[in-house]
Structure formats: structure tokens, C-alpha cells
């Protein structure tokens, strides 16, 4: 089991070194079944899982979502403009990576799986890289991101609002909750 409790790291370099070492040990020990536990992962920066996990797990081109919609940044005092479109960036697998894991992969989700961890779970599920296991039903598969702060003029309170909604790679699922595919392997 590989437990990843956050993707929110100020410096991803130690995580990248950790995952490289972990996948080297997985290879050396001949592991054939891997559980990646993100059941308590509240998210963070996508680059952490994109660079730290996907080079060892992806077997085909993938993208982090299908479509997006939201508001573009605007100068202070100007209204934000609506934006929407398709996610056109496809990432390539690294089939020549000697540490690429070829066994069965499971991603354990739970009520604490959120934000970037849901994007990771969506990619693993929608592209067939893993079977989702664990307790789902706590968060939607579509995720918000790109936050912006808005100060309320009369109270001084600050609201933190997402700038966009990202639909999962398989397509729009606005009412769909992240769910496990199977009960999962024993610990």
C-alpha cells in the first residue's frame, strides 16, 4: 500500500524522490498488486501526482478532464468573463520507464478524498489505470479549482471562490459522485 495524504506540497521535489524510490522498491520486490490510498487526501497541486505518480502508472495517453467552464480572471473592479472549452492537453505515458508498474492497481478513496485527489482518481478510473475501491459518495466527480479571493466591501470579509469547474475525462458528470468500483483488496 502506498498512502498519499496530500498533494499540497510547497516543494514537490521530496515527493518525487519518494515515489521514485517507492516504485524502485516495488519493482525490486516483484509486487503484483498495488493499493494507492488517497482516502484522506484533500488535494493540492496537480503537478504533484502528474509528475510523482503518473510516470509509473499511465499506459496510454490521458488528460485530467474533458471540459471546463467558469470565469476568466479580470482586472480589479471589472466583471469576470465566462469561459468554457475542452481540455486539449493530453499527457503521454512513459512506456520506456523501467519503474513503470505493470501489476494490478487499486486507488482507495474515501470521504476525505477531495479536489486534486479526485482528479487523480478520475484519471486512474476513466483511463482504466486502476480500480477504485473504498467508500465514495462524499464528493462530486466534477471538481472546482483555480481559486480567487473576493473582498466584500462592507464587511471586509474575504470569500474564496473557484474560477472553474472541471468535468472528468469521461465527460460531464455534474450530479455524479465519486464512487468505488469494487469493495477492494484486503489491507
TrEMBL record:
Gene Ontology molecular function: any one: serine-type peptidase activity
Cite the Tail specific protease domain residue spans from the record.
20-136
Q: Which InterPro entries match?
A: ClpP/crotonase-like_dom_sf, Tail-specific_protease
Any one of the GO BP annotations: proteolysis
Q: Where is the signal peptide?
A: none
**SUPFAM superfamilies xref list:** ClpP/crotonase (SSF52096)
Any Pfam family from its record, for instance, is Peptidase_S41
Descriptive protein name:
Peptidase S41 family protein
Q: Which organism is it from?
A: Massilia timonae
Q: Which lineage? A: Bacteria, Pseudomonadati, Pseudomonadota, Betaproteobacteria, Burkholderiales
